[in-house]
Amino acid sequence: MKLIESLVSVIVPVYNASTLLPRSVESLLRQTHQNLEIIIVDDSSKDDTYKIATILKKCDSRIRVLRNKKRYGPAICFNRALRQARGQFVTFMNPTDIASAYKIKKQVQYLLQNPKVVAVGTQCAVVKDHKNKEKTSFPEKHEQIYPTLLHGISMRFETALINRHLLPKDIIKFTTNAYPFIFSSLFLKLSQYGKLANLNNLLYTHYEEALSSYKQQNRKGRAVSYLALLLKSIAEHDYRPSLKAFLQPFTTPVRTMFR
């Protein structure tokens, strides 16, 4: 398949982000890889999010808008959009974040050139308090990513582009009871079908202080959820991280380990 022929589905779940959603979508419309479909899922927002999304849809035929009748949470939003996604490649986007114009093109090129890689992420800038910016230094190779995959300190899952060609049909499905580790659970499953990788390029900006609507669980609750996911992963995938990797979530600041 040629680069220009590769359809990419971008899924954007959103709840109460009317002021920030246009900035995020604009960064997608400016992608140098133009063969996109952008699926916005409004999770029954109480502000003008749905109105803004429908206005954006009228501006570009690549945008589709879905709306939930009630609030279900991110996992249901992702799954609903995935059922309608048509692209060979699929990626996710926080409604408050920004993607570099070259992000998707570079990722599609990488996956086409590395057919054994099922998903590739990027480095990202993390902005806190609208001013402090930190750059990630995620490892590039599967062997360094996999041991710390569950707690997401070796890959920013929202930056990843997934090659559905390597996967069984409908395998990309989020587990609703895995929150806040819905991405961790999914990517561990994906790693059974191919390798994971990160580009060394900074191609995504995440605004940490923005939109915390889905971040309600406290540190203790998240730790319990992490342990439950770890036990499930050992049973289902024989996932056995090193002792250092196992302890790392408990010694890493909450803002990094639990997103």
Report on the architecture of this protein.
The structure is a single chain. The chain has 259 residues and is of the alpha/beta class. The chain has one domain (7-253): Alpha-Beta Complex (Spore Coat Polysaccharide Biosynthesis Protein SpsA, Chain A). It is 34% helix and 22% strand. It is built from nine helices and nine strands. It has helices at residues 21-29, 49-59, 74-84, 103-113, 142-145, 182-190, 219-237, 243-251, 254-257, and strands at residues 8-14, 36-42, 63-67, 89-92, 98-99, 117-128, 132-135, 161-163, 195-207. The N and C termini lie far apart (35 Å). The model is unreliable at 254-259 (pLDDT under 50).
Descriptive keywords:
259 residues, alpha/beta, Spore Coat Polysaccharide Biosynthesis Protein SpsA, Chain A, 9 helices
Provide a concise account of the structure shown.
The chain has helices spanning 21-29, 49-59, 74-84, 103-113, 142-145, 182-190, 219-237, 243-251, 254-257; strands spanning 8-14, 36-42, 63-67, 89-92, 98-99, 117-128, 132-135, 161-163, 195-207. It is an alpha/beta fold.
